[in-house]
């Protein structure tokens, strides 16, 4: 089977969350014989006046860049010592996080972005958007969110919900590839409400046939519910799943950001890694293509 994961990008900010994401990345890279890009972004703070944008503290930015470069290099050397057969590369960008990651995805042909997640959002993050949620919704390839408290780095039980039809064949192919590398079992979960039951049940049956053709060990179950995120999270606990593989499709995207859509629910209520398959042939339009700025433009005198 073709290796579907050849290049990983892991977002590094030297927190416990990102340290755990790095640990997950090297374990995945070892199984898939993939290379690992250690990515860090430095965001400038600017002011805007009548003369245009000006960077605040250019000397401080330069100093931070050198410190970051040194810290990343130390991390790379440490990982190379522990995993001598893996190929590591460090990249630092000086832009918005999403724009920087998308640039690397294009230039390095990244297959999977790995990001640490707290698994919880406070009210401010709900309003402004947590970094992991922003990366999930705006980068141009598949995303793996790794909870900070995750301590298992192999995927023996792989939960694959069938809840939407988009890219389902690709998701099954990726799930089988991961299962083969982990010698794991796929747990196929058909999950639907009353409105979509016929088409989802048909897709669920086709997925079962696909797994059987590929000689992939699996078990299966079908649930009827409107509360899909909660039920998937609950099922993952009962099934002792190690990872959930989801389509990048939110059927509840119409909901206000004051409410919890499918993505926010599944992130908040699940404490195992979440892999969102995203079709990298479709570019996501990002609203974050510029550095943070503070507008202090004053009105003209008189």
UniProtKB/TrEMBL annotation:
Annotated UspA domain residues: 7-147
InterPro entries in the cross-refs: Rossmann-like_a/b/a_fold (IPR014729), Universal_stress_UspA (IPR006015), UspA (IPR006016)
Superkingdom, taxonomy of origin: Bacteria
Family in the record: Belongs to the universal stress protein A family.
The protein's name in its UniProt record: UspA domain-containing protein
A Pfam family: Usp
Gene3D superfamilies: HUPs
